[in-house]
Amino acid sequence: MRERVLLNQGWEYIPQWRDEYVEPAANTEGFVRVNLPHANKEIPYNYFDEKDYQFISCYRRSFAYREAWVGKRVFADFDGVMAYCEVYLNGRLLGSHKGGYTPFAVDLTPALKFGENVLVVKVDSTERPDIPPFGYTIDYLCYGGMYRDIYLRIVDPVFIENIFAKPQNVLEEKKTLETTVFLANTTTEEQSLTVTVQLTRDGERVAEKTCTAAVEPGKSSLDVVLSDLESIELWDIDHPNLYQVEVTIAGGTGISDSYAVRIGFREAVVKADGFYLNGRKLMIRGLNRHQAFPYVGYAMPARVQRRDADILKYELSLNAVRTSHYPQSPHFLDRCDEIGLLVFEEIPGWQHIGDEGWQAVACENVREMIQRDWNHPSIFLWGVRINESQDCHGFYQQTNCIARELDPTRQTAGVRYIEGSEFLEDVYTMNDFIHSGGEHVLRDPKQVTKTKEYVPYMVTEFNGHMFPTKRFDQEERVMEHALRHLRVHNQAALDPHISGAFGWCAFDYNTHYDFGSGDRICYHGVMDMFRIPKPAAYFYASQTEPRNKPVLEPATRWTWGDRSIGGVLPLVIFTNCDRVRIKLHGHDLGEFYPATARYPGVPYPPVVIDKLEIGQWGVQWFEGEFIGIVDGEEVITKKFTPAPVPAKLVISPDDLELKADGMDATRVVFMVVDQMGNPLPYLTDAIEFQLEGPGELIGPAKTALIGGAIATWVRAGEEEGTITLKGVTSRLESEAVEIKVKK
Ligand code: GAL
Question: pTM to 2 decimals?
Fold first, then answer.
């Protein structure tokens, strides 16, 4: 039976490389102990030199050989190392890998010995021009280090390499599951095996089939079909029903292995007239996500990756995400499966196509991405082009061919920004940045595709650099930012030939000096880098049924003089309520209805008020009250004070319990609010995070509020206990929260 051991803890690290480090007895002076995921260098929030993390470093870890491993094969499974690495065991080079976003396995068996074994990884985090996405400029950072998980995998000489479980005829009453089992026979003889495929749900058996197979030395595959499956519940965005497929093999020579994957039964297809999930038309409403965080870049553990999916689904009410521009954390994708968030996943790249060797790595990225992720029901499209690159016939014919051969169940797509680009994919996916505030919101798909007929078409980016917006920008700007997201989704929904749109983007992100605001940040998110919302986030948030969550977010700071010439008109209120009552200084100004005629495409248009009797600039300013009404009932209220002052420093941890593994982490948001509980977007007071107990802060302990709020992440130590954390500003102190750290 296989054994899989997480190897994240207890590495030794040095931010430099010397050839002698590969030797087991090398002098390790200067090495420090680290756990994974690990950033080779922590960086400031902004204004840093991105060259700071582009260097070659060394990670070392020893482990003891175990009796039980005799006669077995031992692999090191790497989930992701940026960007090139070499893997040595006991001084011997056993493998290398190009590309920082896809997994690879190194067979350690040839150099394994009794006693202590020393595993050394040389990690090259420079932007090597032979590896995608590098070679020219890129609008994102790739950070460095061993930033994902590593496992030791111990298997018998004949073992299961992978499983691809393909649900078929899922819309019929009796469904089929076709499972391809990929086997490796490392012996020199043919092996006869019994292969069992079992479909289960929550531990209960649904179906099972056993067959026998003669497996030649080397790699081979075997198809097992489970048919006439009844009472299967489909996976969809509201009911993400999941099943398990477990494959077990057993051979006469004492060989056994078992491997399980999680799947969902669903049919997802983009047609010329829209996207269909399980035969039902669904308008894609998504955002692009970079997997980056302040200070440590990509190196965040499972919990934090998973949380992002929750934010997209539950705080932003999205039904889809594009993993711009690379395969993202397996933990993030797992969570997308669990909560019903559709995913468009793509290979690493940004506009530039390199030489033949580079293209070969990109093709390998297609393979690695698909073979890693083909069982995720949430993934509905493979992006097999370099984002926004020019046409390149041979190269893209090849990437499409690889994808279709590996996975005939999903459509391919390739994101471009040029019109009339060669259509080699199944879905024409376009970054349409035409909207810059005026009447023109999206292009006609046929104008873009230059095809005779309409083809499956999706908008994969809009807004972004057309209107960078900081959370603490002036009211007119943050409101217009929100309206642009609204207008594009509205227009996409009204065009019968557009299957949906992904806005650019979910979260602000660190970038190279060539892009963004010069401080190494692209302020393109509807949330900032700490995942704190801008008003644009409220447009998305409001697109959910009020019984899930009533939303009432006036896009205003409620002041006389923040906008040019003053006032708060037009007043845009993002809400899913039937109507909104407004009071000024206790005086009823009436009820106002959503702008359905103006924005008929979105499920919940905002209330837009162009005229309101609230006086004019220069007269006294008063308290405002907004009351959201659903089915005749007042369900939500929001009040604004005319004279805000900092009243409370609110502390909001995402989790109150962490694992005592030295890696687990959670975000804690600090926000100063006024007397009515509203944020103060221009407050810049200093803040100190005071932490006690078995954990540490990720990032600085002393910093400044950014637009009245900020977050930090708390990383658990390896000891059990209780972390207490509070924030202290020059005027306020938050409550202290307790975060339990448990084994
Ligand atoms: C696109 C690109 C994105 C990002 C965006 C900014 O062209 O695909 O990665 O740079 O522009 O708006």
Answer: 0.98
